[in-house]
Design a protein that fits this description.
By secondary structure, the chain is an alpha/beta fold. It folds into two domains: about 35 residues; about 150 residues, DsrEFH-like (Hypothetical Protein Ychn, Chain: A). Strands 4-3-2-1-5 form a five-stranded parallel β-sheet, sandwiched between helices. Helix 2 links the parallel strand 1 and strand 2. Helix 2 runs parallel beside helix 5.
Length: about 200
């Protein structure tokens, strides 16, 4: 191949490579500048199922919920079965069946009266841990529930569990939501964090 032809081929190759590189760099810059278009990406949300009704598990769930809310996340807490105890403000027997009255009698009066999951020590565990928490300036479970409401945490009482256990809306805190599993699943499907406590 003649030197002139070699020079011509080299020049044409350089031009084409340079043009292609410009297109690639332009496309990369456009991708970097565009906002993400992921429709299935989770939102900055946390969803918790609160099933347990003991002081320590309720405290852990509420600490996570309050912590996430204070970090700017949208938080939904779905209270079901024993977890409903955290939302009780009173106990009532009116209009309940015998079985529902028995359940009401066995359930704690509210979050200030829940047992501990371990070291309950015949009922001495809760006052002991409340003392330790007070010594360390740690909020109580009722205070954490109030703080969660203050921070805008969406608190949902499970209507199915309420029906099974005979818990009425009048017995639960004001300003909470009511719903079934579909409410939780809708929130959880859009959440970065989903927990069962």
């Amino acid at each position: 191949m003649s030197p002139e032809l070699e020079a011509l081929v080299a020049r044409l190759v350089d031009e084409r490579v340079h043009t292609r590189l410009q297109h690639v760099e332009s496309a990369l810059a456009a991708l970097k500048a565009a906002p993400p278009t992921c429709t299935a990406c989770p939102e900055d949300r946390a969803s918790l199922v609160v099933f347990s009704g003991e002081m320590d598990t309720l405290f852990a769930a509420l600490t996570i919920g309050v912590g996430a809310a204070s970090m700017g996340m949208q938080v939904s807490m779905f209270f079901t079965f024993w977890g409903l105890t955290a939302l009780r403000k009173s106990k009532s027997y009116a209009g309940k069946s015998t079985a529902q009255k028995m359940v009401a009698m066995m359930l704690p009066d509210g979050p200030a009266h829940v047992p501990t999951s371990r070291m309950n020590m015949g009922g001495l565990g809760p006052p002991f841990f409340k003392y330790l928490m007070k010594q360390r300036n740690v909020e109580s479970v009722p205070d954490m529930v109030a703080l969660a409401q203050e921070l805008g945490v969406k608190i949902v009482a499970c209507e199915m569990s309420m029906g099974v256990m005979g818990v009425t809306r009048e017995e639960l805190l004001d300003g909470i939501d009511y719903g079934g599993v579909a409410v939780f699943l809708d929130d959880a499907s859009r959440s970065k964090i989903s927990l069962f406590v």
